[in-house]
Amino acid sequence: MTCTEEALLGGRVRLVQPATGLKAGLDAVMLAASIPARAGQVVLDAGCGAGAVFLCLLARVPGVSVVAVERDPGLAALAAENAARNGVSVQVLLGDIADPELIARLPRLHHAAANPPFWAGGTTPPAALRAGATHGADRPLAAWCAALLARLRHGGTASLVLPAARWAEATAGLRAAGGGTVALRPLWPRAGVPARRVILSARAQGRGPDAVLPGLVLHADTGWTPAAEAILRDAAPLA
Hints:
Elements: E1 3-8, E2 13-18, H1 26-34, E3 42-46, H2 52-60, E4 65-70, H3 73-85, E5 90-94, H4 100-105, E6 109-114, H5 128-134, H6 141-150, E7 152-163, H7 167-176, E8 179-190, E9 197-204, E10 211-212, E11 216-220, E12 223-224, H8 226-234
Parallel strand pairs: 3-4, 3-6, 4-5, 6-7, 8-10, 8-11
Antiparallel strand pairs: 1-2, 7-9, 8-9, 11-12
Helix pairs in contact: 1-2, 6-7
């Protein structure tokens, strides 16, 4: 597998990933920034790929215990190598998030997150790795939602980053899996235009009204907005 090395979070994270296929970047960084984890808590990174989400999370919150699941053997091995390269300890499991036996082996979780394949059909990208990262007809969003919530402690959170067009489907999946309170956070490319991505989070057995949280405008005329820059370069949380 031919790979390239990228720097994330202003160089705090060194990520080696396949040269062809879908590159981890903005979605992974924003998802990691949205996870409300604290040191000592256990977090699941479902479908971790090369490890961008958990590496960004650990750069922001040292002391989190991460369990990562990836079904592609090459990417799972790369995720483990990236953890070692960045000096962090992560348990990387080779397997499918839809496998009940694998889910049953997971520890009790405080938080779970995924950047899942988000298109069920349409034109399949030419690279197999890219297709696997973006087109998930064999694993619908409901399966991802169920996996994220299956081992959550009471009050734990499940988070996904998705195209805005899929938020209603994902919300239904989170509800069906036991997500009692769902929050939506839009990510706007620029002020005044529709969001292309959203971050959805659900609280296990949560009570209370759903919420639309303050969103984030990513770009201004001169580049990244200060708020986006703080997350992308300085490892700030998505407040």
